[in-house]
Structure formats: structure tokens, C-alpha cells
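As a warm-up, study this chain.
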Amino acid sequence: MPPVDYGFVPGKTSGRANNPSHADNLRRLFDGVRADTELVEVPSDPTVQGFVTHLTTGVTLPARDLLLGTHAGSSGWMEVRLSSQQKESTRWKWIQEAIDKPATHGVGIDASVFDFPDENAEHSFHIKGCNVGKAPVFLAKFKEALDVNPPQGSFYVTAPKHFHGVRPLLNTPAVLEYMYYEFVAFAHPNHRIGNREALLDMFIATTKQIGPDASTAVGSTFSKDFLRPFVPKNIHTQLSPPFPYKLGFTVGKIKSLDFPVTFESKLDLPFSYMVTYNPNASIPALSDRAGHLAGLSGAFANDVAFLPEGEGSGEYPFPEWRQRGYNNFDAFFNGYRWSFAQPKKNEPKIAVTGKRWRYELAVPITFLDDDKRIFKNLHRGDSTTLPDNHMELLETDVRFFSRV
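Now compare it with the structure written out below.
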């Protein structure tokens, strides 16, 4: 039997066949619908460590490629945990833990899981998670943790630069993969963006700042005219209207499907931090806002995770402020509304919470010469009535994926 891909999806199921979760759709894709792919289930240890451990005992080797289905984001995070030692979603610090503590936190994969017969051999670990390909330094760190050292040939980690969508194709066995552009802008809660034109300007500016190729997925430069039809005049609302997009093939008599274009304007998830004072230091009263802002600024200045790129110990070439979507520390610090609390009166610690306003627009990625035809992969499964697999989103295509 030729090598196959092994896919792993640790996310939660919806429990409802008529309303599957994103994880349910990914499991369906990996479980025999995607060509030459097998789904791996590790209910006792639904972590990357559990997945890679299972590869050495529970599947037929060598593998071709590995796939991981998880929620993820452009700030450099994945919902999946690397090991059971980890109690939260994966960010940079947890990857560093996996590298520093391989015996307990490690996710290393022995090269013998694959076959590298010559220098032309290539194998990959494909992350199927939204937008995390916009953070190639995060992917490179994850690749370091996987620690695959082929004797010859090449090993890669890939991930989408855009929203990654998966849905069943009507009442057929097939599954569609597709992508959405992500446009995002942030504002201080006390100084939200005033109108649609100002928001469009920020969407264009921040998209260009995210990273190489992020704003030119199909070779076009985004314009306000392109975005304006999808952004409501009242920009402090949430909408998800359907728009019809052509498939490029027919299902019976159906040539297009509705895909929602999503606009959101809301408070973002809070940013939490703990400032620890010297036991002999005088902690400002909670009413002394200026004093606490100064204390927070000083704490950040002594935290390697917040230093400018190229400074500090070198352990954080991807600073926390860049992970949060800012180009410099000052923009990060001034972009949040900070609040302060002392969890325990007798401890020299101040719990800090930062809040900001988030605007986000998600628009399907379409062809340059036909803005109503969506880019997609058609995985036909065992259907006998659909056209052959139709692959337009390839992991080697830098318009859509990062590959490190």
C-alpha cells in the first residue's frame, strides 16, 4: 500500500449532524473524502504530542504527509495544545516549552515516520488553521519543536495565510475547501473609528502591514472600492449576509453557492498580564491610574517578550505587541484601555486587563478575472456524479500558504 496522509482534529464536535462544527467538517474531510488520507483519533490525549506518539504505534508507516485541523490566528496561535502539560491555547511560550522540556512537553517527530530515499524527497506537516500562515516566524518555531531531521530531502510546515473554510457540498459525499480574505483593524474603546471611509482606510493599511504577500493573495492590490460593498455604513454592528459565488462546475443544475461575507465590530478578547512589584516597593493605590500605567510600562520594558525585535535574549523574535497586530510597542500600549486590580491585598501583584475594539471583515477569495468565482478545492470522496477532484488551493502556492 502506498503511503497516505494522516490527519488529526482535536476540536469539539457539535453533536448535531445537521449543524456540524468546523472540527466535524475537518474530520469528514480527513476521513476518506480527501484522497489518500486517513483520520487519526486520539481521545485519550487530544494534543499534538498525543498525535505524534500515536504515529509510532497506531498507523502504517511510512506516512506521506501529516495534517492538523485546528482553529488558529494571524497573531501566531493555535487552539490545539501541544501536550497535556499545557492548559491553554498554543502561543510562542508553549512552543519554547516543548523545545526546552522534550521529555514532558516535547512534540518531536522521528524522521523514520516518513521515507526520505533521496535528496528530492519532500514531506510536510500541514496546519489547516485560519491565518496563522501570516506569522511565518511562529511556523518556523513550531517546525523547530517538531524536530524532524531528514537524512536527505526536505521537511516543511505549511499553513494558510487566510481564513480557511471547510463545508460539505450540498447532499453529496464531497467536501469543499475555500479561503476568505481577513481584514482587521483595532481601536481604543474610548476612541473608536468614526465612519466607514476611515475604517476602509485602516483595513487597507493594516492588511498591508501584516506580512509579505498577505495583501496580494491573487495578485491584486486591495482598494476601498473593492471593500466598500461589504462594509455597512453603520460600522458598529455585526452582519453576515450571504452572497452567491460560482463554483466553476455544476452539481446537478447548481452552479453557485451562497457564502456569507462577515463583518464584526465588537470588543476583542481581553489581554491579561500580571505586574509583580518588589516586596519592599510601594504599590500605587488602585485609584492612582497614572502610577499603575507607569508600573505596567516598566514591567513591559523588563519583559523580553515585549522588547523591540532584535533586542533582549533573542528568545522572542516575535514580540507580544507584534503578535497582537501592532507594528511597534507604543501603538500596542496606547491601543488598549488598561484596568488594574489587586487579587490579594498582601501580595505585591497587580492584575492588568487590556481591552480594545476590533473590526473584522471576511470576504471570499475569488479569481482576478471573475470576482464571483471562488477559489476552492473540491474533494469528491466516493461520489460518482461530481467532476474529478478540483484543486486550486495548493500548499506550495505562496499566494495562499506559508511554507517554512
